[in-house]
Amino acid sequence: MNSIVQRAVTFLPLVGALCANLSFGAELPIGIFSIDGATVGVTTLDEVQQTYGKAKAYRVGREDGANVRICYAHSASTRGSYYLAFESGVMGEFSTITGFRISTIRPAKNCVSTKVDIGTLETRNGIRLKQTLQDFRSTVPIEFKRRGLEFTYEAVNKRLATPEELNKLRANWPQEKQDYFDVTITIKAKFKGDHLIDFFVQKIESY
């Protein structure tokens, strides 16, 4: 594990708590990182299971540092099947969620059935499955890279460390001068026709 990863993991509990209150300016609504009470950088996989039911986490890749994921499915006789997945990686200590996905596309691996009607869920700022493209663009007024009906947004921002964080950083690394955290954001949306069928968001803080 490199020094950047070690530092990020060491301070994750404090950084995660602050991450929920982090603002990325007027363009990116902070509510995009929350769904049904679960917030990226704050909520743990164990807490998610208290809402949706027990689920076994599995690796999304073969490498040792690959994210772990838990997945849920809900079927409605008149509306089809819906899926909700939460992920955590090294920066979340494989416990605190670093991203989530809502989708109508069946995942490669089986998901645990949940009584929660996933098809009715939406992010705190109003993103929901079957949403029209126009409504989605007004809900998330940022510049996406578009390829057909797939939209991607990637950005790296910086957040100044708080005085409390700086004290802990200097105590562990007296020679380190960096006073900020890197914040990496990934957002992906896929449409079929004019309606949202898959949405993924991820946010990671590292030092």
Per-chain topology:
Layout: H1 3-10, H2 12-19, E1 34-35, E2 38-39, H3 45-52, E3 58-59, E4 68-76, E5 80-88, E6 99-103, E7 112-113, H4 133-139, E8 145-147, E9 150-160, H5 163-172, E10 180-192, E11 195-206
Parallel strand pairs: 4-7
Antiparallel strand pairs: 1-2, 3-4, 4-5, 5-6, 6-11, 8-9, 9-10, 10-11
Order of helices and strands: HHEEHEEEEEHEEHEE
Roughly what fraction of the amino acids lie in strands? Answer: 25-35%
Largest sheet: 9 strands, mixed
Q: Can you tell me the residue ranges where pLDDT is under 50 for at least 5 consecutive residues? A: 1-26
Structural class per helix/strand content?
alpha+beta
Q: How many helical stretches?
A: 5
Shape: globular
Could you characterize the architecture of this molecule?
- With 207 residues, the chain is of the alpha+beta class.
- The protein is 20% helix and 34% strand.
- It is built from 5 helices and 11 strands.
- It has helices at residues 3-10, 12-19, 45-52, 133-139, 163-172; strands spanning 34-35, 38-39, 58-59, 68-76, 80-88, 99-103, 112-113, 145-147, 150-160, 180-192, 195-206.
- The strands form 2 sheets. Strands 3, 4, 5, 6, 7, 8, 9, 10 and 11 form a 9-stranded mixed beta sheet that branches. It has a two-stranded antiparallel ribbon with strand order 1-2.
- It is globular.
